Structures are given as structure tokens and as C-alpha cells.
Amino acid sequence: MFDLDQIPVPDLSDPNFAPFWEGTRENKLKVQRCEDCGTHRWPPRLTCRSCRSANVEWVEVVPRGTLYTYTTVGRPTAKGFSSVPYTVGFVALNTPANVRIIGNVVGVEPSQLAIGMALEGRFVPAGPNGEMTLIHWAPPSA
Amino acid sequence: MLGGTSQASITGVGNTRYSKKADRSAERLAIEAVLAAAADAGIEPTQIDGLIPYPGHIGDDVIQAELGINPRFRVTVDMGGCSAVSALRVASMAVMSGAAKHVLLFRGLKGNSGARKADRPSFLPGQSFRRQLEHVYGMNTPAQRYAVLCQRYKHEYGLDRRTLGEIALAARAHANLNPDAQMYGRELTMEDYLAGRLIADPYTLFDCCLETDGASAVIVSARTESRDVQILSVAEAQGASPDDTSNREPFLDIGLTQAANDVWNELGVGPQDMDAAMIYDCFTFEVLHQIEEAGFAGHGEAASLIADGGIRLGGKLPINTHGGMLSEAHQAGLNHVIEAARQLRGECGPRQVEDARLIAVTGWGQLGDGSFAVLGARNV
To answer: Which of B215, B235, B279, B233 is CA-nearest to residue B62?
Structure first.
């Protein structure tokens, strides 16, 4: 479905994202949490919006959530995505509830997609040499 | 009397005919539009002393060199589709402060036959978010980014495809009264609309705006002659996280929400006082979305305004009487300003809104920047 080896690899050493990519490589979803006030935040930022602290830690969260919104793409526009249709979704995590993660939704016919459906993350190596691990979201297997 | 004798006005507007493939260069198109606007304002091009170019289009250096303009004021307003309306305010401030007498806003691009949107440099904020979080999942076009907003709205409030279809059809019907429009002479039926191929669900072909070869120009001056259109109030604002939509809360909040509110409060008029609205229509749903965010209808209630010809000429609130970006041209919103000015001068012939005195114009750009203006006829 996806040409995983052709998806352009972003700068995995970007300090704002490196801990995230190191996490997915170990099949872990990590997001930022303020070390001072404990507020989770995503996408990654330098400063906590709640208390302005720059002290941050990356914490593992459970890759389960619900579909918040999505689009099924009918016209190829991106490298690595020559076969259509495919779906991009925003997944609202169960915990912490204030974080939404972007990813491809798989294992569901486009006509069966529904906002609010339960999804869980699967870790999928991609890039020419499998150097990055992406997260795809599918209905829970059990 | 809303305005006054000391007021910034739109004094000149001009544009080329819009097409899929122009037979001359983008530079030449831009020069033609600027010359037309200067003639419309009754000034020599060399009297233009302020320039507000638009990133990615023909630059001010070309216009300066070709027309012998020596600007005393030059600034870029880099807010994507929000820029045209936001620049009206910057231009107003410039002419009212005396920094310049005649400020030119212009667009010029071979946006269809030249490099298409997806192949041109992106000016979106948060480029690392785009690369790290979106491109790796095949999300890299405006249609996809805007589709997720529409999809969420549909979930929260319900939305019939035919409502979006009517937005596309109304735009096309208006464009068919506008010989400059790219889609002039090309009818669009609901059957055509419903048969449009999938672009990014819920968007199909006719939900998406055009890409255009063409140019347009607007001149703002501190002048209040009889044909001059009053810039009564302009405001701008941004969404809660201007570089990211995925985690924005409230998700459907956009800069326009605040900008429109600011303008209504400043002027002491409201949505019910507008004779027409020019709404930045990059996608059909964004017309509906902005109808609600600007206060023309409550949340979840725009469909009833759109039904039964409500946004067509002769309806409750005629919207985009030129055909908008869906059917006139993509000029990053400057064509919406031009149409409002022409309507307020009563020059629109078969598509004239009867006795148009007050018209609202919106801008929508980047990932949530919004701008809002109310323009007035001289006699308001």
C-alpha cells in the first residue's frame, strides 16, 4: 500500500525530534512532558505553555486512542505514496487526552472509517534503509 | 456616517483576464494589472510611492524597474491568503501616517501553466513540523490540510455534500456573469459536482479552488473622492497554534473568529448590515466555516443560509459575486478586494448587488491566519 522505502526521511537528529525518533525505533511512542508542572505537550516545543519552563522530559505513552479527524487521499501528491487511496488521521490519545498524533490509518476500508473509532499504533520501519520508524494506526487486534 | 473625510480608501483596482495559460510572461501580466489600477485611480504609475508585494509572486523590484517607481515605503505582508486583507490595513496605516501617498498591493503569477502550488516553495510556518510529522504520512497539500477541518466539522454538526456543492455552483454561476473569470462560459451542474473525482475526502475536484495565470492590483490612498471606496475597518488574528493544526483547541477556531469580532465592535455594525461578502474560498467548506466564524450564521447553522440561493445574487447574503477562487481566479484573495470595490462603485453590470453600500471581505492563510475588513461605498 505504501512505498515505505521511498518516503523521504526528515532530519532524525533535529534536537526537537530526535528523542521521538529514538523512541519509535524501540517501538515506543514518546511525547514531551514539562519537568516542572507535568503538562504533556505535542508537537514538541522549547517552552511549556502552562508554566513557561524550558525543562522538558520525554515520556513513553500508550499508543492507543480514537480517531479525531482524517482524510482519505484520492490523488497521489507525496513521495512514497503513489498508490491511492490512503488515509491520514489525527489520533487523540486516550492518555494524555490533550495529545493528538498524526499518522496513517490502516486496516480499515475508507467507507468504514468513523471519527471516534478506537485505534492502536503499530511501529513500521520506513525510509530507504529502514532508518526511521513510523506509526500506523489500526483497529485494536484483540 | 461610518467613515469620514480623513479616511484611507481603495482608489484604484485592476486585473488581467484570468486563464489557465497566459500567452505572456508573469512579469508582463503584473505590469498590465498595475497600469490598469493606476489608470483606474487617475494617477501616473510614478505617483505610487508605497509597495506591498506578495511572497512567491512577481517581486516589487520588477514593478519598480519597469515602471520607474521609487517607493518611500515597502513592506511584505507574509500571511498567505490572509495577506490581501491584512495588507489593506498596513497600506491604510501607511497613507494615514504620511509614510506614503499611494500604496500598491499586487499579485502576478503563472500559477497554472507555470510551477503548480505543490511544486513551488512553501511559505507555511513550522516547516520542521511539516517534514517531521506530516510529509512522512503523505500529507503535503492544502487540500489535505483543509480536508481534516471539514471532516471534523461534519462529525460535530453534520454536513450534506450538496451544501458544499451549492457553494461551488453559486461561485460558478457568478463567474458566468464575469468575462474576466477563468471559468467564464463553463457551466457546472450538481451532477458534475457530485461526479468530481476524489482529491482528499470529503473534498472532490470541484471543492478545490483554481490555479491561475493572471495578475491583479489594488491602490490604497489617503483620498476621499467620489469613486473612492472607504476602508472602514480591518483586523487580523491567528489561530491558537499558528504552526500546527493537529493539536489546536478549539480545533475549528481560526484567526477570523477574533478578527471579525474586532471589526464588528469597532464599527458598531454587524453581519446583518452587510450587502454582500467576499469570502476567501480556497475550498468550499472554508466558505461555510468562515460564514460561521465571522458571525453571519451560528455554529452549525450556515447550511440554512446557503440553501435556496441564499449566497447567490439576489439572496440573503450574496457571496463571491466574481466567482471567487473556486471559479474566478486564484489571486491569493486580492481579487476578492477588487470585487468588493467594484460592487461598492456600482460597476458590476449583470452581477451588480443592488445598492451595495457595505461589503465584508475575509482573508484566510497559512494554517489559521485570518483577516477581516468592512469596505464602504462613498455615500455610507
So the answer is: B215
Query: A-contacting residues of B 83-122, CB under 8 Å?
Result: 118
CB B243 within 8 A of CB B367: yes
Distance from CA of B243 to the nearest CA of A (A): 10
The CA-atom distances, in angstroms, between A37 and each of A50, A57, A62, B81, B155 are: 8, 11, 21, 37, 34
CB atoms within 10 A of CB B321: 31
Domain assignment of residue B121, yes or no: no
Interhelix angle for B255-267 vs B284-293, to 10°?
Answer: 50
Domain membership of residue A23 as a residue range:
4-138
ipTM value: 0.97
Q: How many residues are given for chain A? A: 142
The DSSP string of A18-30 is HHHHHHHHTT-EE
Q: Do B131 and A11 touch (CB under 8 A)?
A: yes
Reported confidence tier of residue B378, pLDDT bands at 50, 70, 90:
confident
Asked whether residue B304 is domain-assigned, the answer is yes
Domain count, chain A: 1
Encode pLDDT of A100-118 as tens digits.
999 999 999 999 999 999 9
Residue at B161 is within a domain: no
Q: B116, B20 in Cβ contact below 8 A?
A: no
Task: Report if residue B143 sits inside a domain.
Answer: no
Whether chain A has a CB inside 8 Å of the CB on B157: the answer is no
CATH number of domain containing B321:
3.40.47.10
Total number of domains constituting chain B: 1
Q: In whole angstroms, what is the distance from residue B42 CA to residue B39 CA?
A: 5
Q: How far apart are CA B119 and CA B134, in angstroms?
A: 17
Maximum CA pair distance of chain B? 55
- Chain-centroid distance of CA B367 in Å reads 15
- Most A CBs within 10 A among B119, B136, B145, B251, hence the mutation to make, goes to B136
Biggest alpha carbon–alpha carbon distance for chain A: 45
B-proximal residues of A, 4-63, CB under 8 Å: 7-11, 14, 16-17, 20, 42-43
Domain extent at residue B279 = 9-114+210-376
The residue in chain B having the minimum alpha-carbon distance to the alpha carbon of residue A82 is: B138
Q: Please tell me whether residue B300 adopts helix, strand or coil conformation.
A: coil
Each residue of B117-132: pLDDT tens digit? 777 777 788 889 999 9
Size of interface A-B (CB pairs under 8 A): 112
